[in-house]
Amino acid sequence: MQFSAWEIIKQGLTGNKGWKPHWRDPEPKSAYDVIIIGGGGHGLATAFYLAKEHGITNVAVLEKGYIGGGNVGRNTTIVRANYGLPGNSEFYSHSLKLWEGMEQELNYNTMMSQRHVLNLCHSDGQRDAFTRRANTMLIQGDDAEVLSRRQVRDYAPFLNFDNERFPIRGGLLHRRGGTARHDAVAWGYARGADMRGVDIIQNCEVTGFRIEQGRIKGVETTRGFIGAGKVGMAVAGRTTQVGQMAGLRLPIESHVLQAFVTEGLKPIIPGVVTFGMGHFYLSQSDKGGLVFGGDLDFYNSYAARGNLPAVEHVMQAGMSMVPMIGKARVLRSWGGIMDMTMDGSPIIDRTPVEGLFLNGGWCYGGFKAVPGSGHVFAHLIATGNHHKASTKHLLNRFETGHVIDEETTGAQPNLH
Ligand SMILES: Cc1cc2nc3c(=O)[nH]c(=O)nc-3n(C[C@H](O)[C@H](O)[C@H](O)COP(=O)(O)OP(=O)(O)OC[C@H]3O[C@@H](n4cnc5c(N)ncnc54)[C@H](O)[C@@H]3O)c2cc1C
């Protein structure tokens, strides 16, 4: 079914009885050409591009829970291409371009809203670093503007400009950045993949791999063995656990990240505002809720819930930079499991097991990466070669030293 204004009118006039489920609920076949483990944003986008770009449609996405139940439905929906290092710079640029065409490509309203991302700076040194990053973004072909303190005040007058410790000195504005409706992205890719013949199989947990003479033969699941010549892992916070089933010890740790939303308010926040020095960021959803978050909870965990010290830290940082937030009532908080690598950048690569591919280590940045990641991962699985937008996200960079450490914090995942 094609969504269109005409379809909405037709359904409206006929009692909305003709809408179909967005994807089928098939029984797993005994074997597929490709299996993707994980029905989050990355897994679904990969399946979609395998079918659309490479004509590989004998594909199953195996999801242990339900579509949208992982981090793809738990994030704060920020989309941007403002990275500074080779490897990430071209990759996130590629991803943002795909975001800009996503709704047409999927024929699905993902509520992509390029409402800007503003990073605040609080010292001359930080402004120098932002200027350098802005130049990198411009060279990459993306947009960037370095704002003065006065320009930031015009843009977001509600901020606390004279905080004793972090007075606002300026900002980096990325106008093509913004937000999108997170679970609609998962649903849109699921529907697009299903329409092209991909089987999306929910409630099907992968519990092991069948590997013979170093080659993947298929996966053991809670619904029996399913054969495949190629298997792609896209399980985000569970990457280390699933990797371990294939004998892989990966340079990834899992940590909890929490986020918060307030009651709905009239529009007040123009775009996304980040207060990096205080580990705080904020936007406003289309329903009016202030959506905000901060840092990881700092300890390793596979639990999708956090602790009170991180809550207190985020609230304090919010109050110090956006004092008016104190008047809003928090409705909900939640947590998600983050797959943090040793350098804060993702891995999109082959593994030592022939036919087994790895997509993981998304840290804080996996939502904005969804279309780009699916696109380049599908390319790798289909052709055996890395896409030109992702030649540096290699697993062996932690052996060779070619790390992509945006934060320059070294091998301490909870600081990236
Ligand atoms: C609070 C929070 C805020 C965030 N904010 C942002 C943001 O603003 N911008 C941004 O870019 N990123 C953000 N992120 C990060 C982003 O959400 C993740 O990096 C990204 O969603 C991870 O990729 P995914 O969508 O494929 O993961 P998921 O949706 O978690 O998908 C992985 C799937 O694999 C499944 N799975 C796991 N094990 C198995 C198994 N054995 N068998 C079968 N299936 C399995 C899981 O059930 C899950 O559905 C945020 C994350 C959190 C938690």
Automatic annotation (TrEMBL):
A single GO molecular function term of this UniProt record: nucleotide binding
Annotated family: Belongs to the SoxB family.
Principal location class: cytoplasm
Catalytic activity: sarcosine + (6S)-5,6,7,8-tetrahydrofolate + O2 = (6R)-5,10-methylene-5,6,7,8-tetrahydrofolate + glycine + H2O2; sarcosine + O2 + H2O = formaldehyde + glycine + H2O2
Subcellular location: Cytoplasm
EC number in record: 1.5.3.24
Cofactor(s) required, per the database record: FAD; FMN
Keywords: Cytoplasm, FAD, Flavoprotein, FMN, Nucleotide-binding, Oxidoreductase
Residue ranges of every copy of the Rhodanese domain listed in the record: 34-78
Top-level class of the enzyme under EC nomenclature: oxidoreductase
Swiss-Prot/TrEMBL GO biological process terms: tetrahydrofolate metabolic process
UniProt protein name: Sarcosine oxidase subunit beta
GO cellular component: cytoplasm
